């Protein structure tokens, strides 16, 4: 806040290194993940995951509290902290291996051929995607329910369990002209949580959410392309895609009045309120 006031008063913009609290030279970071209790920050560099205590960062400490590593030939694609307070997390590798870790213990490979992973809203379940099949598993990896996504040719890039009754799934796909596109599917349940095997989920597909999606823009091993932040009190999701070069932030809202639990894109007519970031040269 002090740096922002200084920029406003002086009219000059300092570099990030000038205003940062602590500069940590650990290499090219592909994934940053803050724990549920906001006490730990995980940063991945190639096949290593470094854990930093937030309190230590505030004391300007540069070294991680501890680190874990995958095989040298592998890279970290995604990191998902449990929704509970305990220090449990999942790591998805670029070779589709799923690892489970707890605190400073060693990693355990618990599943293979996984495209995307997420914890359930209450943290008791794990949701995994393998090709177009979405499965809900217990924390002991016992399957509770599963269902197929359509079309069969899609590859799930990201899963985000935003509400007990809603899962957002980002998928890479090809249209009839063989041009890469990105499909967002919202899976909702009217009355029950999706983890309930008796629930009948409804799937809403959004094919034109990212109009300027370019598949070759970012390396496939650098992490999920879909970013999502959900505001619970407003039932509103802010969605972005790292491979989209225009209309960078899309708003997705859930019905507040009729309780249909159906998601829809919120259009912003005023261009002044639309986030746009010019593409930078190599």
Descriptive account of the structure:
- Helix content is 6%, strand content 41%.
- By secondary structure, it is mainly beta.
- The protein contains three helices and 20 strands.
- The protein has helices spanning 2-10, 16-19, 54-58; strands at 31-34, 40-45, 48-53, 66-69, 76-81, 88-93, 98-102, 108-111, 116-119, 125-130, 133-138, 143-148, 155-163, 166-174, 180-188, 202-206, 226-231, 236-241, 250-254, 263-266.
- The strands form five sheets. It has a four-stranded antiparallel β-sheet with strand order 1-2-3-4.
- The mean pLDDT is 82.
Write the layout of secondary structure elements.
Layout: H1 2-10, H2 16-19, E1 31-34, E2 40-45, E3 48-53, H3 54-58, E4 66-69, E5 76-81, E6 88-93, E7 98-102, E8 108-111, E9 116-119, E10 125-130, E11 133-138, E12 143-148, E13 155-163, E14 166-174, E15 180-188, E16 202-206, E17 226-231, E18 236-241, E19 250-254, E20 263-266
Question: Average pLDDT, to the nearest integer?
Answer: 82
Low-confidence stretches: none
Rg, rounded, reads 20 Å
Helix content: under 10%
Q: SSE order, as H and E?
A: HHEEEHEEEEEEEEEEEEEEEEE
- The amount of beta strand, in percent, is 35-45%
β-strand number: 20
Strand order of the largest sheet: 1-2-3-4
The profile of the biggest β sheet is: 4 strands, antiparallel
Shape: globular
Structural class computed from helices and strand pairing: mainly beta
N-to-C CA distance: 31 Å
Number of helices: 3
């Amino acid at each position: 806040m002090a740096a922002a006031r200084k920029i406003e008063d002086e009219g000059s913009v300092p570099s990030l290194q000038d205003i940062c609290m602590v500069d940590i030279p650990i290499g090219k970071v592909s994934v940053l993940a803050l724990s549920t209790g906001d006490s730990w920050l995980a940063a991945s560099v190639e096949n290593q995951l470094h854990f930093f205590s937030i309190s230590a960062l505030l004391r300007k400490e540069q070294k991680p509290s501890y680190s874990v590593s995958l095989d040298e030939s592998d890279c970290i694609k995604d990191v998902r902290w449990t929704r509970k307070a305990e220090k449990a997390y999942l790591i998805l590798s670029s070779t589709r291996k799923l690892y489970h870790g707890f605190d400073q213990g060693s990693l355990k490979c618990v599943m293979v051929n996984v495209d995307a992973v997420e914890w359930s809203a209450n943290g008791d379940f794990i949701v995994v995607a393998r090709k177009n099949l979405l499965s809900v598993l217990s924390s002991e990896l016992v399957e509770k329910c599963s269902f197929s996504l359509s079309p069969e040719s899609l590859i799930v890039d990201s899963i985000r369990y935003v509400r007990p009754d809603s899962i957002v799934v980002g998928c890479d796909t090809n249209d009839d002209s063989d041009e890469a596109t990105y499909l967002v599917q919202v899976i909702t349940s009217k009355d029950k949580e999706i983890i309930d095997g008796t629930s009948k989920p409804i799937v809403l597909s959004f094919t034109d959410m990212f109009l300027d999606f370019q598949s070759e823009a970012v390396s496939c091993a650098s992490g999920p392309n879909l970013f999502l932040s959900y505001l619970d009190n407003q039932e509103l999701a802010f969605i972005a895609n790292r491979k989209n070069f225009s209309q960078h932030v899309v708003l997705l809202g859930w019905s507040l009045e009729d309780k249909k639990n159906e998601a829809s894109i919120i259009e912003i007519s005023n261009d002044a309120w639309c986030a746009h970031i010019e593409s930078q040269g190599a």
